[in-house]
Records
---
Amino acid sequence: FTSIAGFFTAKFKMHPFISTMANMLVIFGLVTYATKGVSFGSIEATIPNMIIPKVNGFPTIILWALAAIIIVWFIWNKTTFGKNMFAVGSNPEAANVSGVNVMRTTILVHTLAGCMYGITGFIESARIGSNQANTGLNYECDAIAACVIGCVSFVGGTGKISGVVLGVFILRIIFVALQFLAVSQNMQYVIKGLIILIACAIDMRKYLT
């Protein structure tokens, strides 16, 4: 499905946010229709212990996060695909003139993202135990907020893994503080939206003439 979103982005010059959001709605609709929106059972009890075992209270799920950071950092910084990805994100026309296959790179970027979504979804399912069709709903807003806080440009071509990690930490601290202060869930959505809006506005100021 994410490869399809990549195809629409590359073929029709569609903004990645639009193609990915449309893709997400289609998947959510299909899953909701198939499951009637109710819980579709819990994961076998042995699976969570295999994936995120408990070791003297240490949250081993962090090890999965570290592995993902290392893998993506290597792809971004040490491979031709990573260089092509930044080139396409910065200026697809210039990248095409330079010999970069823009369509293939765009589709591969979305495919890589889809692989990460799948792995993360599996780990999150193991952590929660019982899942519904709306499990993970609005997680995409958390991801967007963390990235823009971490100085990943919304128009593409700029960003570092260290910035994303820092953005995740900052966002998590903000929401832990809000929960500690007993701020309602609805107001947390408002604050999350404002964070995305302000961070994107600051980012876009660089492109105003």
---
Amino acid sequence: PFSVIEKEQVILIGAVDNNRSRQMCNKVFYEAEELIYIDSGNSEHTGQVVCGIRSGGRTLYKPVGKLYPEVLSDTDKFPTELSCAEASVSAPQAMTANITAATAVLKAMVS
């Protein structure tokens, strides 16, 4: 008697190490009709996890680029564009910060 309508939901997880990649994710977010975009980012001592949601072509929750607009204006390079010398001097990150960010992303997905 009752029918359940299941709807597929696409989730974009921005587990990237540079803002150039976040700019691409931001573009995909705004081009999508339906999308959940979870982005995690951290530096040596700070970090954030942001969940943006689009539904019906409307933004219901703002993505990382709206809450941290500097990520959209940063002109860093893709990791594949870095020379060996540039890659060896990349911004340091604590392993615990990376693990904490990954845990927060997982929690956002299962909530």
---
Amino acid sequence: MNMNDLTQRWSRRAWLRAAAASGSLVTLERLAPGILAQAAEASAQEERILVVLEMAGGNDGLNMVVAHRDEAYRKARPVIGIPADATLTVDDDIGLHPAMRSLADLLEQGRFAMVQGVGYPNPNRSHFESMDIWHSCRHKGGVRDDGWLGRYLEAAQLGDAPDPPALHLGREKQPLALMSRGIRVPSIQSLAQFRLRVADRPELVNAIQDLADNERAEADELLGFIQSSTSDAIATSQRMESIGASYQPSESYPSSQLGQKFETIAKLIASGLTTKVFYLRIDGFDTHANQPDAHAGLLRELSDAVATFVRDANSQGFGDRILVMAFSEFGRRVQENASEGTDHGTAGPVLLAGNQVRAGLIGSHPSLSDLDHGDLRHHTDFRQVYAGVLQQWLSVPAEAVLGAVYDPIKIVQG
């Protein structure tokens, strides 16, 4: 994006912030170049977008990011281990699963990173409990009435944004990560399906919108919640119905559900939607049996969808604004089981994609010999990754969102 484009897209807030930081609005002519630069930087920060991809089921990180020269890996996985000559080279010791060709290409372009050995203390091997921990940043016993992304939306004061501050794309229940005490996030299956069936009932729309101005609704908490939620949904529905008509992808997205979700996100961003967070999910990573083919298919689907999105984003002109983060609730055990699969484990990699990422391996590969009862020992807390995303990408203090201080992983360039 050139300087002219940036200056055309200033927000009034970015301009005033930059002017105030310069000390005076009176000496505008003299300070104009500095103000322009600061306003452009502030605007670029405000326009950054996070796409969170949940790999549900417990992804086998050891067969995704493969320590192919480690004898402990060969010994633990004589059947399902990835042959060294099949991996896609990352460095002399590490390779990617061969199904991840598209992300390997992004890596060569400096647009893909893998944070290794990510987990948390006293890991839980329950899908539901572990996912709740990742979503809320709170262990069992604590109050879980909101999630880390919901708290981000509040910290960034995005509740009054004209467009939804975040969107969940999928049929499943809205993830806890997006829950907030004061900001409601829509869940949609597709743009075509995201419309309220009120086109033939304009009187219903008018009645609900009139209710928004009803003083009685303000005094009644439940009624107020209903009218606010419904009127917000109608406004969002109407916005979605008219959006994206002129968008043309630069290339064909994969026909998979994940590929179509990423195309929807690209369409929304290209159409000018100001949404800051998109959340989507890919299922199937609970590979207890017959893992090789199933895992390869999942990794290919993920790799192709993410890489197409990043390439399309660059063609559409918003490549510098996006960061994709993919995580799973836990990894798998080091030792393969008797069913050509793997069982619930602990640590695993978090994937990052986008023009601004610090590309390559981030952190050391977890030891395959120094284990905790057969499981990997994590060396990076997942909240350190979140802290990096919050502070370096979304420009909000991480402590306010995470509830404690975590040393952020450096995830972006510079």
---
Amino acid sequence: EAAGNSALGVTVAWLWQQRNESEISTHFFQRVREEGDRPIVEDHQRILDAIRARDPQASREAMCDHLQRVIDHLISVFDWDSRGKAS
């Protein structure tokens, strides 16, 4: 919505719905809460600021940086078995 892109808005809404209905996502977020982790507010603010500034390069960089931190964190929190499933 902030980007003024209705296709993006619909896609994001669908992704949130999938996340909320996903068993593995529920397990992930339960583990994250147990670990006491909180969202990186500064990352989210940087993304929002770049979108508001209509700066596509800064938006992309902010989102990529954020997603890399999330991925790194999830890998560190979960033990993965040989089939790629969280234990």
